[in-house]
Amino acid sequence: MIIPTYNEAENIKPIVARVRESVPDAHILVADDNSPDGTGKVADELAAEDDHVKVLHRKGKEGLGAAYLAGFRWGIEHGYGVLVEMDADGSHQPEELPRLLTALKGADLVIGSRWVPGGRIVNWPKSREFISRGGSTYSRLLLDVPIRDMTAGYRAFRKETLEGIGMDEVASQGYCFQIDLAWRAIKAGFHVIEVPVTFIERERGESKMSRDIVTEAAWRVMSWGVGSRVNKVLGRKDSKDSKDF
């Protein structure tokens, strides 16, 4: 379990406790971007008490994508065969993790989806729902993929999937990072499935969502989609590196 943090001192202890209760065998890596609120120190205290918890201290705030990539590399280097993305703020329910892991037995990547039958959101303003639904639809149409929740951040990967999608070439962040990894997995021929989850808006702390994140996603997805279509017309294969488009 990779849990990236930046100023999540109020949230990290309860989310770790819920993960440990839901899947006792799970190991947790807290990837902290030098949070000024002391999240890293809280994580260190948890790690000192529980050998299933580790902490990756990063130099500073470099974005969600960079934190997850660092966590993926750490997990692969330490011999883990399954790596899971989960937010620290409680929006992803640890109690639903067994469902993702069970589904991974028949897939290469499992996405916890809000927008498939059975998925739902709780306590979101309509404006946020519009951005999320719109972003997924926009990405699905431009990139010609069947995934309904392209921006979902609750995911379970097989190690082989991450190794096969060109992690070293990923430069995107935020919403765009999640879209990028899902599209790469599909282009590489991996089996991607969605399972319904309940997404609950955070109760403590501040959301990291910003206009810049949404703008980056819209621009990059348009570039990738146009580039892919041009390549098809010219009879060329898509570049493995999505940022080339």
Tell me what the structure shows.
There is one protein chain. The chain has 245 residues and is α/β, with parallel strands linked by helices. Helices cover 43% and strands 16% of the residues. It has helices spanning 12-22, 39-49, 64-77, 97-103, 126-143, 159-164, 174-187, 211-234; strands at residues 2-5, 28-32, 53-57, 82-85, 109-113, 120-122, 155-158, 192-196, 198-200. The strands form three sheets. Strands 4-7-5-8 form a four-stranded mixed β-sheet, sandwiched between helices. Helix 5 (126-143) packs parallel to helix 8 (211-234) and helix 7 (174-187) runs parallel beside helix 8. The chain is globular and about 55 Å long. Residues 240-245 have low confidence and may be disordered.
Strand content: 15-25%
Largest sheet: 4 strands, mixed
**Chain-averaged pLDDT:** 88
Structural class: alpha/beta
Rough outline: globular
